Amino acid sequence: MNKFTTLTSIAAPLDRANVDTDAIIPKQFLKSIKRSGFGVNLFDEWRYLDHGEVGMDNSKRPLNTDFILNKSEYQDAQILLARENFGCGSSREHAPWALEDYGFRVIIAPSFADIFYNNCFKNGLLPIVQDNNVMDELFAFGNAITIDLKAQTILANSKTYTFDIDGERKRRLTNGLDDIDLTLQYAKEIKNFEKNYFKTYSWL
User: Which end of the chain is more exposed for a tag (fewer CB within 10 A), N or C?
Assistant: First the structure.
């Protein structure tokens, strides 16, 4: 998992509430358990005018030019602005996989569905909660935003906003540690346990 310290990027304004995980990555693309390859189908039903299926050549599909991610000024956005209850619906981990694979590192919204919120941290995404008044200001800003995880701040238009984050989740993001990385930190202890365990219970 990539480390997160600071990020400066244009923010893509997805001005929609109750964006569910089936909108983020539709169900027909859930056949793979790899974490990569989902970015091309992020928001598939909104990005394209036709119906998407696994294996299609997305470069030849008709684009919905009105959708925010298809506008040239947001092609390299690594920050996504959203409205209330982002990530609601089914608890598919493919949703943060698709967002991360597309290139997003930060999502800022007034609220998130609990399971989606937790899955973000496990996959290198930083979900930031801000109230509706702040969100209105960020949506209206339109220029690059700087996120400083150590300071827990958002800098936009010479204004600084703060955000809360659990200390352990902050440590994991700043050090790029996913669940596997956390386990591997104790690889020596695990090997010693296994060695002693099978000595004691040799019949197993």
Answer: C
What are phi and psi for residue 8, nearest 5 degrees?
Answer: -120, 125
Strand duo 126-129 + 6-9: pairing = unpaired
Task: Please state the three-class secondary structure of the chain as a single string.
Answer: CCCCCEEEECEEECCCCCCEHHHHCCHHHCCCCCCCCCHHHCCHHHHECCCCCCCCCHHHCCECCCCHHHCHHHCCCCEEECCCCECECCCCCHHHHHHHHHCCCEEEECCECHHHHHHHHHCCCEEEECCHHHHHHHHHHCCCEEEECCCCEEEECCEEEECCCCHHHHHHHHHCCCHHHHHHCCHHHHHHHHHHHHHHCCCC
**Please, what is the average pLDDT of the chain?**
92
All structural domains of the chain, each given as residue ranges with its CATH number in brackets, are 6-177 (3.20.19.10)
Pick 203 or 14 by higher pLDDT: 14
Q: Tell me the pairing of strands 106-109 and 126-129.
A: parallel
Per-residue model confidence (pLDDT) at position 204: 62
Residue 10 has pLDDT above 90, yes or no: yes
User: Which pLDDT band holds residue 198 (cuts at 50, 70, 90)?
Assistant: confident
